[in-house]
Write a structure and sequence with these properties.
The complex is a heterodimer of chains A (384) and B (320).
Chain A (H helix, E strand, L loop, with lengths): L2 H4 L19 E10 L2 E11 L4 E6 L5 H9 L6 E6 L2 E2 L10 E4 L11 H11 L4 H14 L15 H13 L5 E5 L7 H18 L2 E6 L2 H7 L2 E6 L2 E6 L1 H6 L4 H6 L4 E10 L4 E5 L2 E5 L10 E6 L4 E5 L9 E11 L3 E7 L5 E7 L16 E6 L5 E3 L2
Parallel strand pairs in A: 3-8, 3-9, 6-7, 7-8
Antiparallel strand pairs in A: 1-2, 1-4, 4-5, 9-10, 11-12, 11-14, 12-13, 14-20, 15-19, 16-17, 16-19, 17-18
Chain B lengths: L18 H11 L1 H28 L14 E4 L3 E4 L4 H8 L1 H34 L4 H10 L6 H12 L4 H9 L12 H25 L3 H9 L4 H12 L1 H16 L3 H6 L7 H11 L3 H31 L2
Antiparallel strand pairs in B: 1-2
The chains are: A alpha+beta (384), B mainly alpha (320).
Chain lengths: 384, 320
């Protein structure tokens, strides 16, 4: 690695809060891409700061890959601007942009060895041969592929190919590395392991990453910040915690993790609490959020934040309801209980299986009467 | 590890199989062999056997007989078997500069035509691969369309186009671009036009098949790594389309070298190609042994460079 990559990263852990007046590395303004009449990317604004690992998360066809390809210079844009490191990218062709991309298919050159694949980008910069050799050697060490440098891509496993693709994109020390579903082709176990490796490598080299993924777990593990995308627009941009614990809409609450969402009406709006009358009963929330009394609202409850107890006595009071176990999904470490309420609603509750079941039957089983409850802080209020 | 010995495997009595079932079982077991056998028999019957017959004739002498050559094996009185192998025909061909010059001229014309086909066909194939879902089948259809008409008719059509009083000359005269007809028919130019026109689809189709498989993201990856389009072409696209280039070039080069109809009709007597010489030896001179020797030499001329080429090609693809 050259000097640039080994430099310690002086930027703060939360550069997007923009406390020290740092200029964003990538500035996207009003970006729109239309295919026919349909907007794949619809008027997007986004600032990404140096050292971030930013994830674009969304379902297929939401425009996340198009946005990435526009940053790389493979797609023209209909309106808006992309500025990278202060330079407007409008007239800069892909081969002159300070970005490198790791392709979903990896796009390794099949007729070149691992070594030559990685050296390809450096040769384009007319770098002296000895320096190319050093840089290739360094990066191969980083991705632990030194013993495979003479192999052709088809002689490698999927995980090794993924690392070659990463090395080839990283070796040019781009200002911005674009990763299109970098882990999608790996099997589940390898993917989990590689998620952490990828984050570690990013931390070591200090390059800004933009990762496109449809896998929310991947996004949550990797990202410093993430954007949830739908139909060409950002639904919410924030840290993984913000997005999971403070979703701004039903779409985000439901898209990230799972959520039980109920419609209700605000009955009381205090300075430090809100009361909502919902389809399943009264919900008391102990964090203030400015909502209008009598307005229509949605309450979202994460399944893992609901407690479940076997009980014959019907529950009374806010934040608790009685019901009957309708179905159980046993996942090993946790179980999902589908609790049917008298109102007919089904509430998902997950609970860790912290004790080994006696007689091979769980403490809570089908058709048991149960009470479910949650903390006053757990319910999330959604206005849209 | 207790009653291991006590658990004897019990063999269920296999139900008796019918003759048909046993036959089918055999077919299944030898399926690979059967699959390979069909093309093998075909090749032996229609390729290898005729080759040996031609080789045999090339080693005979001209004789006034029917067929007009001496037999290879003769049974003489007293049970003596004579085998006569006459190499005079080959010596004759190799010593007579007419044959040598004709071989060289044939190779010159076929190599040049192959290069022209490649230079024109490569961009055409590339354009077809890159064309839209509506245009692509239409363009491919247009490439194959000439095969609907007889090859001979199409060559005659070219005669009509290229003749002194032909369509092209008439048009140019009428437009006032020329004062007297340009001589095109019965020149080497006409032979090149005919060969390039006829064999172009054989260049385009393998190239198309090869390029169609190319991953478009490779070009993007090269651009992303800082490679300009021309550099990407020479470093990525060209090496990866090499199998298509080789297949297409061989499909043009091999038949073009032995081409008879095109030099005969479009070149007249002015363009000597080995196919014409072979035909003349065979039909006009009725010298079957010399004609056969000409064919055998042509075969080696074509096969040897191809074998050498494939040997190096195979070595190159095995190298890490």
């Amino acid at each position: 690695m050259g000097a640039k990559l080994t430099e310690t990263n002086a930027v703060s852990d939360t550069p997007w809060l923009n406390q020290d007046g740092q200029q964003p590395l990538v500035k996207i303004k009003g970006l729109t891409k239309k295919y026919g009449g349909w907007a794949a990317v619809d008027n997007i604004d986004l600032d990404i700061y140096e050292g971030e690992l930013f994830c674009l998360l969304g379902g297929s066809g939401c425009g996340k890959s198009t946005l990435l390809r526009m940053l790389a210079g493979f797609e023209t844009l209909n309106s808006g601007t992309i500025t990278i490191d202060g330079v407007d990218m409008a007239d800069v062709p892909a081969y002159e942009r300070p970005t490198n991309m790791m392709f979903q298919s990896y796009a390794l050159f099949p007729h070149m060895s691992v070594e030559k694949n990685i050296a390809f980008g450096l040769q384009q910069d007319r770098m002296p041969k000895s320096e190319i050799g050093d840089r290739v050697h360094e990066i191969l060490k980083l991705v632990e592929l030194e013993n495979f440098k003479k192999r052709k891509p088809k002689q490698l496993s999927g995980g090794q190919r993924q690392r070659v693709a990463l090395a080839r994109a990283l070796v040019k020390e781009p200002k911005l590395l674009l990763l299109d579903e970098p882990l999608a082709a790996l099997d589940k176990k390898l993917r989990k392991q590689t998620q952490f490796e990828l984050a570690n490598i990013q931390d070591q080299v200090g390059v800004t990453f933009i990762v496109v993924t449809h896998d929310q777990e991947e996004a949550m593990t990797l990202a410093t910040r993430m954007a949830v995308m739908d139909a060409g627009r950002f639904k919410q941009v924030g840290t993984p915690t913000e997005i999971y614990e403070f979703p701004n809409s039903r779409f985000v609450a439901d898209f990230i993790g799972s959520a039980n969402i109920f419609e209700g009406r605000v009955t009381e709006n205090g300075a430090d609490h809100v009361r909502v009358k919902t389809e399943i009963g009264e919900v008391f929330i102990d964090h203030g959020q400015s909502v209008n009394v009598d307005s229509k609202i949605w309450v979202a409850l994460r399944p893992e934040k609901i407690h479940i107890v076997k009980s014959q006595d019907p529950a009374s009071g806010p934040n608790q309801v009685s019901g009957e176990v309708d179905d159980i999904g046993y996942l090993g470490e946790t179980s999902i209980y589908k609790v049917k309420l008298p109102s007919g609603h089904i509430v998902d509750v997950t609970a860790p299986n912290q004790t080994r079941p006696m007689n091979r039957t769980h403490r809570i089983t089908w058709e048991d009467k149960v009470n479910i409850s949650w903390e006053p802080s757990s319910a999330m209020l959604l206005t849209s | 590890m207790t009653d291991v010995k006590a658990q004897k495997p019990t063999i269920a009595a296999a139900p008796r199989k019918t003759v048909f079932q046993r036959f089918m079982r055999r077919v299944q077991n030898n399926f690979r062999l059967i699959i390979i056998a069909v093309p093998l028999v075909w090749l032996v019957l229609f390729f290898l056997a005729p080759f040996f017959i031609v080789a045999k004739i090339s080693l005979a002498e001209l004789a006034i007989a029917s067929p007009p050559f001496t037999p290879m094996i003769e049974w003489l009185d007293g049970g003596v078997v004579t085998i006569r192998l006459v190499f005079d025909n080959f010596a004759y061909i190799l010593n007579d500069s007419l044959y040598f010059d004709t071989y060289v001229n044939s190779l010159k014309i076929s190599v040049t035509s192959t290069i022209i086909c490649l230079l024109l066909g490569y961009p055409i194939a590339y354009a077809i691969v890159r064309s839209g879902p509506v245009a692509k089948p239409l363009l491919l259809f247009a490439i194959i369309l000439p095969f609907w008409t007889s090859f001979l008719l199409r060559v005659y059509a070219w005669m009509g186009l290229l003749a002194d009083q032909g369509t092209i000359n008439n048009l140019l005269l009428r437009l006032g671009l020329i004062d007297e007809p340009i001589r095109m028919l019965y020149t080497e130019f006409a032979v090149y036009v005919g060969i390039v026109y006829t064999y172009m689809p054989f260049m385009i189709l393998p190239l198309y098949a090869n390029m169609e498989k190319l991953d478009g993201s490779l070009n993007e990856a090269a651009a992303d790594l800082g490679s300009r389009p021309t550099n990407t072409f020479f470093r990525v696209t060209l090496p990866l389309t090499m199998p298509g280039i080789i297949a297409g070039s061989l499909l043009v080069f091999i038949p073009a070298t032995g081409e008879y109809v095109i030099p005969d009709l479009l070149g007249g007597g002015n363009v000597q190609m080995i196919g014409r010489v072979l035909f003349n030896e065979f039909s006009s001179n009725s010298d079957w042994p010399v004609a056969a020797a000409v064919a055998i030499v042509l075969l080696f001329l074509l096969v040897i460079p191809i074998i050498i080429f494939q040997y190096f090609q195979g070595k190159a693809s095995q190298d890490p």
